[in-house]
Design brief:
The complex is a heterodimer of chains A (537) and B (85). Chain A has an 8-stranded mixed β-sheet. Chain A has an 8-stranded parallel barrel with strand order 9-10-11-12-13-14-15-16, surrounded by 4 helices. Chain A is built from 20 helices and 16 strands. In chain A, 47% of the residues lie in helices and 15% in strands. The two termini of chain A are 50 Å apart. Chain A folds into 3 domains: 114 residues, Phosphohistidine domain (Glucose Oxidase, domain 1, 3-Layer(bba) Sandwich), CATH 3.50.30.10; 107 residues, Enzyme I, Chain A, domain 2, CATH 1.10.274.10; 282 residues, Phosphoenolpyruvate-binding domains (TIM Barrel, Alpha-Beta Barrel). In chain A, strand 9, helix 9 and strand 10 form a beta-alpha-beta unit. In chain A, helix 1 runs antiparallel to helix 2, helix 11 runs parallel beside helix 13 and helix 13 crosses helix 14. Chain B is an alpha+beta fold. Chain B has a single domain, classed as Histidine-containing Protein, Chain: A (2-Layer Sandwich). Helix content of chain B is 36%, strand content 27%. Chain B has 3 helices and 4 strands, in the order βαββαβα. In chain B, strands 1-4-2-3 form a 4-stranded antiparallel β-sheet, with helices on one face. In chain B, strand 2 and strand 3 form a beta hairpin. In chain B, helix 1 runs antiparallel to helix 3. Classes of the chains: A alpha/beta (537), B alpha+beta (85). At the A-B interface, helix 2, helix 3, helix 4 and helix 5 of A face helix 1 and helix 2 of B.
């Protein structure tokens, strides 16, 4: 049994044999040709053949996936016919007296490089379209067909990467899961896996030797297991049974309101840590996103994420949620969760150290970039923003000044944005005790019970020896939550909980009785909490 | 010769699809239509070059049309920019 870990796209699990998909290598050799006229004619013929293929793929995608997804192949056709592209290929053939396949590959490289050098991440992704078009043309010149080989039965498809023109040609009913070495959360394959509602794991070192062997793809753990042994299969069967139970709950509770028997409604939102989690938010029917942790943009990166990268991620989430609330928490990074480029120094006591809003307010350029991206994305949905680790009114006022500055800049640059709700996380005893005053400054509170428990009880939650002391049910923690809720309501703002306790079914009644307005939980917990609330009188 | 200047509002700028639509729109006219931005210039029927101009949200684009149908070309392309970008 071999186990591999990668980035998971959905919480599904699948088992079956592996089909290793090997791209036919269009290795192109540079060959000297005497008769360049003949080579130019071959280029024309190959272009016509490639355009016919694209036309067929376009029609197929139109039928299977709709206008939106098919449009990419229309663009591929236009790229194939592009004057500069074709002229560049012809020039190379004539001037260097070389074969058309070599000329096409060279021209394709040239234009793809032009786009991948641009700063814009979206444009960089378009370089892949040009490579895809070029591969098709080269294959036509070499007389190879680019049609994907189809497996016989249902399989787990493993590949180095998959181009959109390859996935569209596959028989989808035969694919149980994807395992891909190269590919991001926004890659075509990831989007496809989400729409097909099957597991996909990215960033795994796939191997040709897996072909035909049994495997399990566990999207909940982000793992691929080749040749699973009996005890592992046992475990997976248990997980699949749990998943089946969830599906049953789903059918019963999906689309139902989260209200008690007496009709009191609680907003039931989900916590996410990446754009890819949205699929689960939708799957488990959360009513919004109560905590969008923005750290993933920073932790996976080599340098500070640009405004544009952040904007695209926030916009994607806002648009996917189609008008439902999305609460983005600004950067919550600290000495235990860190990225090298922040150049944070090691600390004796990181939990109480230089982290979250403390970094953002001493290095406001970091916060400003993030706020610009969030506000720009606000034009595309229903975004709110909240700030972690607050201990004073002064911090909140400073933040509000920065927000106003950013709005002024955006207005001057004519970027559209909306007036977003501003909230603070209540995680420190200080914030609890001044919550009445804080409530006058903001639009909502979100109680982060993990840190609140740690700070109320002075028990480091990273230290396993303190597990017995770290108790979210401690009366002091519950009293703090009650007090914050009451103070928030006195000043007319809403109060939610976004920590682990929000999903603790033994406390659901306590929270509803306190008057909590919103609970934000892991996507997979949404329906259990909804069930618990609907059973309250 | 007719021309107009436009500041791009679309969040993704002149990416592949609107660039493709622009090429299509421009092919309806006989006039020579030129797009300039960021110190670069390309004729409006050059898809790859248009995509390579780095036109994004906030970029100022100047479009000129020169030829027998320059009036309707200018109006048509201007309408396309206002609607799609």
């Amino acid at each position: 049994m071999e186990q591999y870990k990668g980035r998971s796209i959905s919480l599904k699990i699948a088992a079956g044999p592996v089909f290793y998909y090997e791209k036919k290598q269009n290795r192109v050799k540079r060959e000297h040709v005497e008769d360049t006229e003949a080579e130019l004619r071959r280029l024309e013929e190959a272009k016509t053949a490639a355009l016919e293929q694209l036309d067929r793929i376009y029609q197929k995608a139109l039928k299977e996936a709709g206008q939106e997804d098919a449009a990419v192949f229309e663009v591929h056709k236009m790229l194939m016919e592009d004057k500069d592209y074709q002229e560049s290929i012809r020039n190379i053939i004539e001037e260097q007296q070389v074969n058309a396949a070599y000329a096409a590959a060279t021209a394709g490289d040239h234009f793809a490089a032009m786009l991948s050098e641009m700063e814009d991440v979206y444009m960089q992704a378009r370089a892949a379209d040009i490579r895809d078009v070029t591969e098709r043309l080269v294959a036509a010149l070499l007389g190879r067909d680019t049609d994907a080989a189809d497996p016989d039965g249902p399989v787990i498809l493993a590949a180095e990467d998959l181009a959109p023109s390859e996935t569209v040609q596959m028989d989808k009913s035969k694919i149980l899961a994807f395992v891909i070495r190269n590919g991001s959360a926004n890659s075509h394959t990831a989007i496809l896996a989400r729409s097909m509602n099957i597991p996909a794991i990215m960033g795994v070192e796939v191997s040709r030797e897996w072909n035909g062997r049994q495997a399990v793809v566990d999207g909940t753990a982000g793992t691929v297991v080749i040749d699973p042994d009996d005890s592992y299969l046992e475990e997976i069967r248990g997980k699949m049974a749990e998943e089946t139970r969830r599906q049953t709950l789903l059918r019963e509770l999906k689309g139902k309101p989260t209200v008690t028997k007496q009709g009191r409604a609680v907003r039931l939102y989900a916590n996410i840590g990446n754009v890819t989690d949205i699929v689960n938010v939708q799957e488990y029917d959360a009513e919004g996103i109560g905590l969008f942790r923005s750290e993933f943009l920073y932790l996976g990166a080599k340098d500070f994420p640009t405004e544009e990268e952040q904007f695209l991620a926030y916009k994607q989430v806002a648009e996917s949620m189609a008008g439902k609330k999305v609460i983005i928490r600004t950067l919550d990074i600290g000495a235990d969760k860190k990225a090298d480029y922040f150049q944070l120094e090691p600390e004796e006591n990181p939990a109480m150290g230089y982290r979250a809003i403390r970094i953002c307010l001493t290095r406001p350029e970091i916060l400003k970039t993030q706020l610009r991206a969030i506000l720009r994305a606000s034009a595309y949905g229903n975004i709110s923003v909240m700030f972690p680790m607050i201990i004073s009114l002064g911090e909140v006022r400073k933040i509000k000044t920065i927000v106003e500055e950013v709005k002024g800049e955006l207005k001057a640059a004519q970027f559209p944005y909306r007036d977003v709700e501003l909230g603070v996380m209540i995680e420190t005893p200080a914030a609890v005790l001044i919550s009445r005053e804080l409530a006058k400054e903001v639009d909502f509170f979100s109680i982060g019970t993990n840190d609140l428990t740690q700070y109320m009880l002075a028990a480091d939650r990273q230290n396993p020896r303190l597990d017995a002391f770290y108790d979210g049910h401690h009366p002091a923690v519950l009293e703090a939550i009650r007090m914050v809720t009451e103070n928030g309501h006195r000043e007319g703002i809403w109060v939610g909980i976004c920590g682990e306790l929000a999903a603790d079914l033994s406390l659901t009644k306590t929270f509803v009785d306190m008057g909590i307005d919103e609970l934000s939980v892991a996507p997979g917990c949404v329906l259990q909490v909804r069930e618990a609330i609907r059973e309250l009188s | 010769m007719r021309s107009f200047t436009y500041t791009v509002r679309d969040a993704l700028g002149l990416h592949a699809r609107p660039a493709g639509m622009l090429v299509k729109e421009a092919s309806r006219y006989q006039s020579k239509i030129t797009v300039s931005a960021n110190g670069k210039q390309a004729e409006a029927d050059r898809l790859m070059l248009l995509m390579g101009m780095g036109i994004r949200q906030g970029t100022q684009v100047t479009v000129t049309a020169e030829g027998v149908d320059e009036d309707s070309a200018e109006a048509g392309i201007r309408h396309f920019f206002e609607e799609s970008l």
